[in-house]
Amino acid sequence: MSLLEYKGYYGTAETSVEDECLAGSVLHVRDKIVYFGETFPELRENFHKAVDDYLEFCNEVGKDPDKPFSGTLNVRLGKDLHREVAIKARAKDISINDYVIRACSDYVKHDGVHKNQVFNHHYHFDKETRTQTENKVIEPKGNYEQGGAGWKRSKPELKVH
Fold it and tell me: What are phi and psi of 82, to 5 degrees?
């Protein structure tokens, strides 16, 4: 899902079937902030206005606006994983916090693929019917786009050396 971003706040862009328009809400804040639009540019403009209105309202009433991310994250690992993390962190002579930060950073950096994993997927799609040999219609998952000769990756493959 693509997100809108403005002044450090993130918002969604969705279709409202009931209202026959585009709708969205600001994410990662306790207050409910929604916006609407007939077109995507109008939705984006109304997202910006919603964030500005929220910040102005908080200022007027003397309230600190919610910050989308504080930098603190509480995670429940379970006893076994907690033990393994503590052992591995100790072996590296770093804190559990630093170990978890490194693990999360590595996971995000490699887009959810562990750096030692190698995937060898190969799909062939008929460009007219987008079908495989079983005659099932299959839309490829992930970062693919339709090109002149069929489906192709829209992002370069992750190469592990």
Answer: -60, -45
